[in-house]
Fold this sequence. Notes:
Blueprint: H1 17-20, H2 30-37, E1 42-46, H3 53-64, H4 85-88, E2 96-100, H5 109-126, H6 138-149, H7 154-158, H8 160-172, E3 176-181, H9 185-193, H10 196-211, E4 217-224, H11 230-233, E5 239-242, E6 254-255, H12 256-266, H13 272-284, E7 289-290, H14 292-303
Helix pairs in contact: 5-6, 6-8, 8-10, 9-10
Amino acid sequence: xxETSKRLFVNCGIxxxxxxxxxxxxxxxxxxxxxxxxxxxVKVFMLPRRCGKTLGLDTVKTFFEVTGNDTSVYFRDKxxxxxxxxxxxxxxxxxxxxxxxxxIDRPTWRGEHDAIVKRISTEFKIHRxxxxxxxxxxxxxxxxxxxxxxxxxxxxxxxxxRLLCRLLYMHYGKxxxxxxxEYDTPVLAGYEYRYRTRMKRFMGSWLASGLRDNPYLEFAxxxxxxLMPGDFCGFKDYVPYTLKDRPFSEDFSFxxxxxxxxxxxxxxxxxLDSLCELYGxxxxxxxxxxxxxxxxRYLAIxxxxx
Length: 306
């Protein structure tokens, strides 16, 4: 590894787009363009582990989310900034809901239910400004406060995604963007631990109310590994994608040229063919697309960062 080389972040647990800029970063910001250009308000990805799903969602969140700071500084030198004034005009202008269901796989329904509503309540706390908003219906604000504090009833929790979108729209005057990471993890737990009927009823209602015919929704991205929403909630109004579907295949994986650039940067260019065959052909069925983590891990081990 060259003395001047940036560190790899494969072993640092970094899922934050802004923090990733301190390390070697392969520009994947065109994911934003592709989400906007492809048809369908709700896009669902069935992707394998280790392909940068969480980092990708945080990239989208960082780009669109309305904050008190100028977050365009993180994108001005990236590919997305060359995609036209229309896309640049959306930067930092939308409220964003990002919920991860990673690790929500309790062995009992009560434990699982409590974990899910706690994760929902946590997202409501992030948007605590809505509790004092004078632009929303007072009754909605009261329900918001109950969900935020974890004291809402079952009906209110099931409708909470739509409620949050509506309150954000009323407060900011812009439709909400919804990003859900590992949305199918709770349902898979329901199958494993034999409470799938109650889980499907809860998650099905929650997703359908938030995503179906929601006038306060700009777009939604759901990422899972094994199940599509229609498998458990009957919600069919989405566009499904896998790692092999263009244009998103290179948004969540390395192209052969990106692997070449990475290897050249660290002085391992002679490993290109063997790595693409090993981590591309064997794991994705395509030597031209490679799951990023495996290549980064290979380099990190050889560079002594593991």
